[in-house]
């Protein structure tokens, strides 16, 4: 910035008493005239206020302000701008101040950003008279709701050393910014309130992973049924130590489907996909999606790019997720109705094919796919279709949640402006509750439409462990999308064998988990937790299921008491509250799991959210 720009920015932000900021706002509020029409008496009074806006408040401390005005006028005379007679005349002039009924009543971060940003940068185009009064896109009731929710969420996280947050709400159809909250309180200088969390650059954690998987699918690097290896992995970085990515839990899931890897935000599969795709290729796509601040070289970011090694803004993230919500069709974020809108930006080429974006949306809206990391009933699970991704930067300095319905995109950030780490707060416990509240409010009176199914793709059953056509030995069969060109390959696939890259991981596992001819309880899983709703005790049953049983009878034992002897591999048990140890025995073979059943206090009758106690990955 040159000196004139610095001076202009300064005088437009001067505190002028109450919630009045800037000389222009003060002139219009106190005198109902533009600053260019101020006379010397009025101007010298306004110039006196910023020295101490509370002490020299014109509506409460008039005499103090008059004394300060005299100082201002005398300094002007001393510096040769005016003469002594003019000083006396201006000081003697009677000036009346109007009450502060206006000023910044909503979205101060947004207003300062908007007025200091050229139309081209804020979603419009330069045109004559653009500096005239601006009618913004902000929905004031929504803005106030988001501000209130932001403060409430921060209050609940205060014990975890969490002090700041930001949020952005965008209309997917028009690109209009409906709510823009940069901090909990712009006017609280002691808590760094003027910092703008929407425009600040921070590490995005895992929020870039959906764009990696979308591009890898588009380029044919992976298929929807590809099995990715979540196993201990090391990368040799020239001139540095070995790079060994891990998840927050420090555990590994072994062979995982693309859907599971993305939905549960697994780090190692993402790094492996990026290695195959290429950092430079992915970086070019991110820039195409509007991440202007990722301006370093591919070597600078390395394979950590997909885990958040770069810095982006909440604004950039929201803009990119809007493109995802629009199935790859770019659109500018619009902030002022005076500007020409970029509705659809039809002239801009679509980023990738709609079907690939639709597939990623399907994965991000799959509540069951992310159950391993988040549980089925987390704050990410809404009572209507919504795609969402969380992110947590290193050392818990930033948490993000960005997601969309067919109508709106909501982006939230929770952290500390000074970079101080939060205490064990991840994306799902930090930014997600705020995202949840805003989404429920936006769709309180009208539910969004369902997401479009991936165009031209078909669903086929696959074995969850191999990604191939199921065989009779497959313990878990799921549905997954296929490109038509891959159907013939699907019909003729061979059996799946774990390659040598799984050897180290397999050595740590119970082998019976992955060999279908071994004696093992498949359901329930060890450590499962079930809720039993009042009045539905008879209806709610749990299947006890075995894999790899022989022709010998099987004994089922529950808490040391035999409950059945049978030759089949399945038994249904009516749920009862308590902590249970289930054991299956057949001659010398046996397997044991524990699970818990708890009676719910009441059955949910309205929308909301609940948080279960589950381990969260580096999400």
Based on Cα principal axes, name the global outline.
Answer: elongated
The proportion of residues in beta strands is 15-25%
In terms of quaternary structure, what is this? Answer: single chain
Radius of gyration, whole Å: 30 Å
Query: Alpha-carbon distance between the termini?
Result: 38 Å
State the strand order across the main sheet. 2-1-7-6-5
Mean pLDDT across all amino acids? 86
Q: What is the β-strand count?
A: 17
Portion in helices: 25-40%
- Number of DSSP helical runs: 19
Question: Would you identify the regions where 5 or more consecutive residues have pLDDT less than 50?
Answer: 125-131, 340-346, 511-517, 604-617
Largest sheet: 5 strands, antiparallel
Architecture overview:
The protein has 619 residues and is of the alpha+beta class. It contains 19 helices and 17 strands. The strands form five sheets. A five-stranded antiparallel β-sheet has the order 2-1-7-6-5, with helices on both faces. A five-stranded mixed β-sheet has the order 11-17-16-13-14, with no helix packed on it. A three-stranded antiparallel β-sheet has the order 10-12-15, with no helix packed on it. Strand 1 (164-171) and strand 2 form a beta hairpin. The longest helix is centred in the first third of the chain and has 18 residues, at 140-157. The model is unreliable at 125-131, 340-346, 511-517 and 604-617 (pLDDT under 50).
């Amino acid at each position: 910035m040159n000196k004139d720009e610095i001076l202009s920015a300064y005088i437009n932000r001067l505190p002028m008493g109450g919630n009045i900021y800037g000389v222009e706002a003060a002139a219009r509020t106190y005198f109902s005239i533009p600053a260019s029409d101020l006379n010397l008496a009025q101007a010298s009074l306004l110039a006196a206020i910023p020295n101490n806006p509370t002490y020299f408040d014109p509506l409460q401390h008039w005499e103090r302000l008059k004394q300060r005005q005299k100082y201002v006028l005398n300094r002007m005379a001393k510096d040769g701008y005016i003469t002594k007679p003019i000083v006396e005349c201006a000081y003697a002039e009677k000036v009346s101040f109007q009450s502060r009924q206006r000023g910044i009543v909503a979205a101060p971060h947004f207003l300062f950003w908007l007025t200091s940003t050229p139309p081209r940068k804020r979603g419009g185009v330069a045109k004559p008279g653009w500096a005239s009064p601006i009618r913004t896109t902000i929905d004031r009731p929504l803005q106030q709701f988001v501000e209130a929710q932001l403060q409430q969420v921060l209050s609940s996280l205060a014990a975890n050393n969490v002090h700041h947050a930001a949020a952005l709400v965008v209309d997917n159809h028009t690109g209009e910014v409906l709510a823009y909250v940069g901090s909990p309180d712009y006017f609280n200088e002691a808590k760094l309130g003027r910092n703008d969390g929407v425009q600040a650059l921070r590490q995005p954690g895992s929020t870039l992973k959906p764009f990696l998987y979308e591009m890898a699918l588009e380029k044919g690097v992976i298929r929807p049924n590809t099995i990715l290896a979540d196993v201990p992995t090391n990368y040799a970085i020239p001139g540095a130590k070995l790079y060994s990515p891990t998840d927050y839990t420090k555990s590994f899931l072994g062979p995982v489907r693309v859907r599971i890897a993305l939905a549960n935000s697994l780090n190692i599969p993402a790094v492996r996909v990026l290695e195959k795709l290429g950092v430079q290729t992915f970086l070019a796509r991110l820039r195409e999606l509007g991440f202007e601040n990722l301006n370093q070289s591919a070597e600078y970011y390395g394979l950590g790019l997909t885990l958040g090694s770069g810095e982006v803004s909440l604004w950039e993230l929201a803009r990119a997720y809007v493109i995802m919500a629009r199935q790859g069709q770019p659109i500018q974020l619009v902030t002022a109705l005076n500007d020409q809108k970029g509705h659809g930006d039809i002239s801009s080429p679509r980023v990738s094919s709609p079907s690939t974006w639709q597939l990623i949306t399907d994965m991000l809206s799959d509540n069951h796919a992310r159950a391993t990391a988040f549980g089925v009933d987390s704050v990410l699970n809404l009572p209507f279709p919504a795609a969402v991704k969380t992110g947590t930067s290193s050392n818990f300095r930033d948490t993000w949640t960005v997601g969309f319905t067919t109508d709106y995109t909501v982006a939230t950030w929770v952290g500390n402006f000074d970079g101080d780490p939060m205490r064990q707060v991840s994306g799902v416990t930090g930014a997600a509750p705020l995202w949840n509240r805003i989404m429920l409010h936006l769709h309180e009176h009208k539910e969004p439409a369902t997401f479009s199914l991936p165009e031209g793709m078909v669903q086929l059953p696959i074995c969850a462990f191999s990604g191939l056509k199921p065989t009779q030995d497959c313990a878990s069969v799921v549905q997954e999308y296929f490109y038509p060109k891959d159907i013939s390959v699907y019909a003729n696939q061979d059996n799946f064998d774990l390659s040598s890259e799984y050897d180290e991981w397999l050595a740590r596992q119970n082998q019976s988990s992955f060999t279908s001819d071994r004696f093992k309880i498949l359901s329930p899983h060890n450590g499962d937790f079930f809720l039993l709703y009042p009045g539905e005790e008879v209806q709610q049953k749990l299947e006890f299921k075995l894999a790899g049983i022989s022709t010998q009878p099987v004994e089922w034992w529950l808490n040391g008491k035999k409950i059945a002897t049978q030759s089949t591999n399945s038994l249904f048990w009516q749920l009862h509250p308590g902590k249970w140890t289930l054991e299956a025995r057949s001659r010398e073979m046996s397997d044991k799991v524990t699970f818990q059943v708890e009676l719910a206090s009441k059955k949910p009758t309205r929308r909301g959210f609940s948080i279960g106690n589950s381990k969260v990955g580096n999400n």
